[in-house]
Here is the input.
Amino acid sequence: MSIRPATIALVVFFALAMAVFGVFAPRFASPSNMEDLMGGFSFIAILAMGEAFPILTRGIDLSVGAIVALVGMVIFDMSLIFHVPGYIIVPSALAVGALAGAVNGALIVFVRLQPFIATLATLATYRGIVYAISGRQLVEGLTTTPIKDRWITGLETYFDIGRMLGIGKAVHLPAVPLSFLLMLGVFILLQAVLLLTKFGRSVLTLGGNAEAARLAGLNTGWITIVSYAISGTCAGLAGLLLVAKLTTSTESIGFGMELSAIAAAVIGGVSLAGGVGSMFGPALGAFLLGAILLGLTLLQVSQYLQQIVTGAILLAAVGYDRLLLLRRLRRRATSG
Amino acid sequence: MTEDDKIPANDRRNFLKGMMLGSAALTGAASGLFSKLDLAAGDIGISQVRADTPERIKMAFVQYQPHSVSSAWGKGIGEVLATQQIVDYQQLDGQSKLEVQVSLMDTLVSQGVQVIFVQPVDSVGIAPSIQKAKRAGINVITLNIDSTEPHAAHVEMNHYYGAMDIAKTMGDKMGGKGKVAIINAPPGIIIRDQRTNGFKDGLKKYHPDIQVIADQEAGWDRKKAQDVFTTIYAANPDLAGVYGVNDDMALGAVDVAKEKSLLGKLVIFGNDGETAALESIEAGELTGTQYTDGLQQGRLAAAVATVLATGGVTPDGFGQQGHLLMPYIIATKENVSQILPYQRW
Here is the structure.
């Protein structure tokens, strides 16, 4: 697979943003800030990579933020009400995410709902379930009880790479959070799925031209359901990491997070028209958004202006995606 | 007249001396003779006597969400810190999201602030961030919502005892009997429990004949409270009193009461004491509210912060977390004029 111009543009923009903030934003280049960037945005990167799958099939998943909250509350209840050990909670959390995602896919395939409508509906439904099962409301005193299970809190661990390599005294390297390593793992896994498996190629074919995919004998229903299940599983993992960081879960966590995930995916060059994109883009897109947020905060730029900047970048990315799409269509028209 | 003629002989000599010293200093500095050349303070490393120019202190306030209460605190904090002349202060918005607050706290720790004021979205969720701040030597002061992680100080409105007094005054106004409804905040926040339990315990203590017949959530919001109260009233037309756990929600009930011409029949109480509520009391609409001087609350928090920061007090320098309850009055038509314009927020 050749490297697309959108990816090059993203890398250049990311490097530029890092360089500019590194020079102008006080303490941006400090190890502690790099830890914040890796630790604070890895779960967004994971969400964005998951979100890329539905978008690649020419769909969208608006429910990922609600799935984060759902998984968060399941972890909360299992740990604090039922005292289930963490090694059972972790796989269960991922399973809940996968199931919630698969339900999205099933609604789209079997009920033939538009992805936008189907996931908007499940967004509301999953949020409703979160309130209904909230241990914070069912059992008194849990609002002030942190989750202490090592299997969960252990996910929020930082590795002092400098000291491990024995150069900790010479250079002060940022400690690498486990969430960042997990993010890298997800990246490698999903990129391999996308590039090396039949399923991955089918996703791209389906997104590129659904009719052609059907005619080619692909099981489009199955591909759709699995794509949304991947998105849900990633949301489950993101929920786990978030709960580990916060040592609790609330009814409102993950609110609006689907927008960050979609923004990161689109900025990362995943075409909203489907069929085009990789895992590298969404991951880097998430860290780009993170770097901009941290950099502007350190520069003491108003947060409202920050939101405008983020919106402008998203608009530019969508515009660029559109431009590339038009060029693709024109080329196809002239060559055909 | 030439330029030279303007400078008297004595001044000229001084000028030349200054030039010599200056160039000597520059040469010295260039050759690394004076290791602590400080041009800004005029210190070239020779003179030990100079005005003390302390390093500027950074402080920040991470609010829950934009609201009249947090902006009153922010204003009060800003007033006191601006007077100190050595403090850089910024206010950040948590956007009602725990994860945003946590990210902002982390950034402030990287930024090297000395004090963080925070109104946490969640008591437990903010705890790891407070732990991290403490490790970095930063004092954290919470406003209204406490954290499970001990920190420098907690400055809060008197939620529980204030709500008991609301129940007492409200019951007096109702003649000690009748049905009341509570328009409540969403669950999961300590102050909701304090303001609700205080009210219920107050009724039990002072007015045991008054019954709470509805307790519904309206998300701190005036518009939502209108809808919630409309439904409650439809189901309970014999309702005699309403308690909104913040002023916005109480004013939502006032809106409905006005529309249905129920103002004389209903006793409506709020909590906080923001300007809109006080004006509504003066207009004879809202019956009363618990008034706390939000500006003063901010000023007291800033005073604590300044003492800690300038005194070089580290987070582990305490035995345990300090706790400050704000004074308050139950404002009604009889005493609302005592609250002066500069005390309103």
Notes: Confidence is low (pLDDT under 50) at residues 1-7, 15-51 of chain B. Residues 9-30 of chain B form the longest helix (22 residues). Chain B touches chain A at residues 90, 92-93, 95-99, 102-104, 106-107, 109-112, 121-125, 127-128, 148, 186-190 (CB under 8 Å).
